[in-house]
């Protein structure tokens, strides 16, 4: 069974940092691109970042470029999102989601982790 | 950036009735469109990809159609478990992969 389990969310002050993790199981992690998608409270979905299976290709939304860094460790079946210079508008549930390399829809999602940026 | 616009924002439907949701792209996305369902407190679930192909395990009452800029998700006979928010997402031109703002299907 495919499982994606996010962790690392919490309350952080504006300007602070947080590192999210996503633990994957039930599939060959190294064969899939991975993504972060967020959802602000009561709002819609926003794609944040993608990383290819071998980390060769990395993309970010303009809203997080220069502040967030996506990475992965295929040996540990884990995906990460380092978030720096956090702003109130980064408050959201952050989901990790997978897509098979070359196909660009998200076929499995984790349950999400809540990040709250507030003083 | 391709902007995805969904309509209506809220759709009130009685159980057993048909629901038709629309998604429009600001420029052609060919058939590179997916639909997701999200229930309160849950992660989104993939329903449709390639504009019309049902994902694994998705009931046949869900169908997708369209290409270019106009897309439709149809739920032929609404069941109680289908009341949720539905999002479309384009993956033709990216980054970014963009979502519509969602359509909430509620009980009439």
Description:
The complex is a heterodimer of chains A (119) and B (108). Chain A has 119 residues and is an all-beta fold. Chain A has no helices and eleven strands. Chain A has strands at residues 3-7, 10-12, 18-25, 32-39, 45-51, 58-60, 68-73, 78-83, 92-100, 108-109, 113-117. In chain A, the strands form two sheets. In chain A, strands 2, 4, 5, 6, 9, 10 and 11 form a seven-stranded mixed β-sheet that branches. In chain A, strands 1-3-8-7 form a four-stranded antiparallel β-sheet, with no helix packed on it. Chain A is globular and about 40 Å long. Chain B has 108 residues and is mainly beta. Chain B contains no helices and eleven strands. Chain B has strands at residues 4-7, 10-13, 19-25, 33-38, 45-49, 53-54, 62-67, 70-75, 85-90, 98-99, 103-107. In chain B, strands 2, 4, 5, 6, 9, 10 and 11 form a seven-stranded mixed β-sheet that branches. Chain B is globular. The relative contact order of chain B is 0.34. Chain A binds chain B through residues 44-47, 50, 59-62, 95, 103-112, and chain B through 32, 34, 36, 38, 42-46, 49, 55, 87, 89, 91, 94-102.
Question: What's this model, at a glance?
Answer:
The complex is a heterodimer of chains A (119) and B (108). With 119 residues, chain A is mostly beta strands.
Key terms for this structure?
heterodimer; A: 119 residues; mainly beta; seven-stranded mixed β-sheet; B: 108 residues; four-stranded antiparallel β-sheet; 0% helix
How would the blueprint of this fold be written?
The complex is a heterodimer of chains A (about 120) and B (about 110).
Chain A: E1 3-7, E2 10-12, E3 18-25, E4 32-39, E5 45-51, E6 58-60, E7 68-73, E8 78-83, E9 92-100, E10 108-109, E11 113-117
Parallel strand pairs in A: 2-11
Antiparallel strand pairs in A: 1-3, 3-8, 4-5, 4-9, 5-6, 7-8, 9-10, 9-11
Chain B: E1 4-7, E2 10-13, E3 19-25, E4 33-38, E5 45-49, E6 53-54, E7 62-67, E8 70-75, E9 85-90, E10 98-99, E11 103-107
Parallel strand pairs in B: 2-11
Antiparallel strand pairs in B: 1-3, 3-8, 4-5, 4-9, 5-6, 7-8, 9-10, 9-11
């Amino acid at each position: 069974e495919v499982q994606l389990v996010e962790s690392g969310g919490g309350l952080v002050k504006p300007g602070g940092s947080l590192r999210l993790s996503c633990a994957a199981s039930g599939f060959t992690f190294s064969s899939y691109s991975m993504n972060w998608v967020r959802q602000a409270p009561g709002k819609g979905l926003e794609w944040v970042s993608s990383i290819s299976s071998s980390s060769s290709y990395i993309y970010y939304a303009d809203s997080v470029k220069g502040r967030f860094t996506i990475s992965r460790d295929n040996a540990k079946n884990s995906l990460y999102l380092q978030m720096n210079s956090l702003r109130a508008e980064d408050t959201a549930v952050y989901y990790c989601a997978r897509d098979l390399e070359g196909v660009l829809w998200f076929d499995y999602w984790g349950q999400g982790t809540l990040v709250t940026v507030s003083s | 950036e391709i902007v995805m616009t969904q309509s209506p924002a809220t759709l009130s439907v009685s159980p057993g009735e048909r629901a038709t949701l629309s998604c429009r792209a600001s420029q052609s996305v060919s058939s590179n469109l997916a639909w997701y369902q999200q229930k309160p407190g849950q992660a989104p679930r993939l329903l449709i990809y390639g504009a019309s192909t049902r994902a694994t395990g998705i009931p046949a009452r869900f169908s997708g159609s369209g290409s270019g800029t106009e897309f439709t998700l149809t739920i032929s006979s609404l069941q109680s478990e289908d009341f949720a928010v539905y999002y479309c997402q384009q993956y033709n031109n990216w980054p970014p992969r963009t979502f519509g703002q969602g359509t909430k299907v509620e009980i009439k």
